[in-house]
Amino acid sequence: MTSIIIKGLLIGIFVSIPVGPIAVLCIQRTLNRGKYHGLVTGLGATASDLVYGILAAFGLSYIIGLIEKNQFIIEIIGAVIILFFGVYLFKSNPVKQLTATNLKKESYFQDFITAFALTITNPLIIFLFIALFARFSFIEPSTSIWQIIVGFIFILIGAATWWTILTTTVNFFRSVVNVRGLYVINKATGIILTLIAIGGLILSIYRKTHGMDLPIF
Known about the structure:
mainly alpha; 10 helices
């Protein structure tokens, strides 16, 4: 059981640690709204990751095949969503955001759902889980269903630990970021997400037209 706990923690950290759209969005929300908005954003992505992790663990070949068959469409949808976030953040005004935060409590649920939706459109996560499961021998013939459940609980704990570390570190610098700094962060975040989206669209279309297996955002 100790082994499955350690493996779960490591997989949870490794599946969350790559810097991508969610990490950028998590940092932006932490600086703009506070630590817990960033943390909830990370947990929304983790919930989506777990969906793919469960599919990978239990070898639901039909669903995996369906994802592979419609991968191009899913990638395009994901890139469009990221592009929307990028443009929205680039155009957003941090002064109005701070005023709105003072007048009305921001929705943690909305942060969670948007992060979940953004991550669920990246089907390649399922293959990352397959690779990690194979690397750490997460599921073996002798592994019981209860051990697998415990393993997934600690995957969640590992991911939550990473997002807590990230948001706590970013939040530490939040007190020294003024409104102008937030304005620059919004612009930079918007540009980064827009570039990721455009890059994802180009790579998806190129891979589709040339039949090549290229990394997709």
